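To start, one record:
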Amino acid sequence: MVRDVTDKRPEYFEAILQLREVSEEVFEYAQSELHKNGIHIAKIVPAENGYDLYTADSDFTKSLGRRIQERFGGEYKISPMLFGRKDSRQIYRLTILVRGVPFKRGDKVLYEGEEYIILMQGKEFMLQEIKTGKKIHLKYHESKRIKLVS
C-alpha cells in the first residue's frame, strides 16, 4: 500500500536510505524501485562514497534495503531514531544503511592466506576454499579481511 503524502510538505520523510560504496547500478535500482512503487523521495543528497535518499515510507524503504542486500550483496543495518510523539505514540525515523563490498559471487578472494571462491552473498558470505572445497560463512563486518584476487 502506497502511503498518501499529498497533505504533507514536499520535504516530509520517514526514512533515509544510505547507499555507501555501491555501484551506479545499485543507486539506479533503488530510485527505480521507489518510483515504480509510488514512494515519494523528498530529496537525494550526495554523500561521501554514496547517496542518502530521504523517503516517505519507512516500511517500504526497510524492505528495499533488504532486497538490495540480497540482490547485490553488502552490509545492511537499520537504526531507528526517536523523532517525536503523536497521540501518545512514539514516532521513529529510520536510517537504513546498505554498504557495498568490492567483490561479488564467483570472484576469487584471499582470506587468512587461503584462496576461496565467493559462492553466496546475502545476510552473510559463503566462501569455498579452492584447495579443499571446505565452505565457510562470514559476517559482513569480516569483509575487510577479504582481499580480491586479480
Q: What stands out?
A: Residues 58-72 form the longest helix (15 residues).
